[in-house]
Specification:
4 strands, alpha+beta, four-stranded antiparallel β-sheet
Length: 69
């Protein structure tokens, strides 16, 4: 019985740690159409979502959308 509870506990901890490293595909809408930015996970995703924008090399700023497909 102790082994069963230990396994349940370990699986629970793994599940919680995986939820913290959430991943999502991100893109922005440019005049020429949707531009895929790729998949971001964990802190990179959080930072991108908190900022909410992407600025290209010409200085144009676009609104970023993550995980909406």
């Amino acid at each position: 019985m102790k082994k069963l509870w230990l396994k349940i506990g370990v699986l629970g901890l793994l599940g919680m740690s995986c939820a913290k490293n959430k991943c999502a595909e991100c893109h922005y809408d440019a005049p020429s159409g949707e531009v895929e930015m790729g998949t971001y996970c964990g802190d990179e995703l959080k930072n991108l979502e908190d900022l909410g924008t992407y600025t290209d090399s010409l200085g144009t700023t676009y609104v970023v959308h993550c995980g909406e497909h």
